[in-house]
C-alpha cells in the first residue's frame, strides 16, 4: 500500500509537494475546528439554559459564576461582557451584547480564509501538474519512434498529468466538504447567539423596569 502511494506521489511530479503541504495544513486545521465546534455543541445549550434560569431567579452572582467557569465558550464571554457592566441602561446592555458578539465572529470564522485558499489553489496546482506533464509528453514525443524508448517519456508525462490533476481535486474536495460544514455551524451559532442574547436582554429589561438595581455581580 505504502509502495503504491510512494509511486503515485513520485508520478505526480513536483506539484505533489505543495499539495502534500496543503493536505497536512488542511487536516491540522480541520482537527482544530472539529474540536472547537464539538466543545460548543456539547456544552453551550446546557450552560445557557442554566445561566438564564439562575438569572430569571435573580441569582445574578450564580449566573456569572457559571459563565466564568465556562469562559471558553463564546456565548459565555458575550453574556459576561454585558452582565459585568455597572448599572447599565437596557440600551447599553444591548450594545454590550452586540459589541462582544461582533468581537467573537473572528473566533467563530477562524481559518476560513485558509480553507478558501487551499480550495482555490489545490485544483490550480493540479492543473499546473497537468501542463507540466503534457510538456514532458510532447518533449518526449517522436513520431518516428513509436513503440521505441522515447515512448516511456510520453507515458511518464501523461501519468504525471493525470495524477497531479486527481490529487489537486481530491485535496480541494476534501477541504471543501469540511469548510462548508464549518460554515453551516458558524451560521447556526450566529443564530443561537442572537436567540440567547435576546432572551438575556428581555430578562434584563424586566429587572430594569421593576427597579431592581442588582444588575451585575456584587463587588
TrEMBL record:
Location(s), subcellular: Cell membrane; Membrane
Lineage: Bacteria, Bacillati, Cyanobacteriota, Cyanophyceae, Nostocales
Record's keyword terms, sorted: Cell membrane, Membrane, Protein transport, Transmembrane, Transmembrane helix, Transport
One Gene Ontology biological process: protein import
Protein name: MotA/TolQ/ExbB proton channel family protein
Keyword Transmembrane recorded: yes
InterPro entries linked to this entry: ExbB/TolQ_transport, MotA_ExbB_proton_chnl
Membrane-spanning parts: 12-31, 118-141, 161-179
Protein species of origin: Fischerella muscicola CCMEE 5323
UniProt similarity note: Belongs to the exbB/tolQ family.
Boundaries of every MotA/TolQ/ExbB proton channel domain copy: 72-194
Any single Gene Ontology cellular-component annotation: plasma membrane
One Pfam entry name: MotA_ExbB
Membrane-topology annotation of the record: Multi-pass membrane protein
Amino acid at each position: 500500500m505504502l509502495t503504491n502511494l510512494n509511486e503515485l506521489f513520485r508520478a505526480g511530479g513536483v506539484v505533489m509537494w505543495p499539495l502534500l503541504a496543503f493536505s497536512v495544513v488542511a487536516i491540522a486545521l480541520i482537527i482544530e475546528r472539529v474540536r472547537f465546534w464539538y466543545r460548543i455543541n456539547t456544552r453551550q445549550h446546557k450552560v445557557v439554559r442554566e445561566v438564564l434560569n439562575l438569572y430569571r431567579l435573580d441569582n445574578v452572582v450564580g449566573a456569572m459564576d457559571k459563565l466564568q467557569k465556562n469562559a471558553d465558550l463564546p456565548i459565555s464571554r458575550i453574556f459576561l461582557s454585558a452582565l459585568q457592566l455597572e448599572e447599565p441602561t437596557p440600551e447599553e446592555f444591548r450594545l454590550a451584547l452586540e459589541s462582544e458578539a461582533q468581537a467573537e465572529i473572528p473566533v467563530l470564522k477562524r481559518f476560513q480564509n485558509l480553507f478558501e485558499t487551499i480550495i482555490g489553489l489545490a485544483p490550480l496546482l493540479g492543473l499546473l501538474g497537468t501542463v507540466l506533464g503534457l510538456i514532458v509528453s510532447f518533449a518526449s514525443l517522436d513520431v518516428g519512434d513509436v513503440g521505441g524508448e522515447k515512448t516511456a517519456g510520453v507515458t511518464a508525462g501523461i501519468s504525471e498529468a493525470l495524477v497531479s490533476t486527481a490529487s489537486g481535486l481530491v485535496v480541494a474536495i476534501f477541504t471543501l466538504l469540511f469548510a462548508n460544514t464549518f460554515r453551516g455551524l458558524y451560521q447556526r451559532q450566529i443564530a443561537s447567539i442572537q436567540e440567547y442574547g435576546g432572551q438575556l436582554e428581555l430578562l434584563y429589561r424586566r429587572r430594569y423596569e421593576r427597579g431592581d438595581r442588582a444588575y451585575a455581580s456584587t463587588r
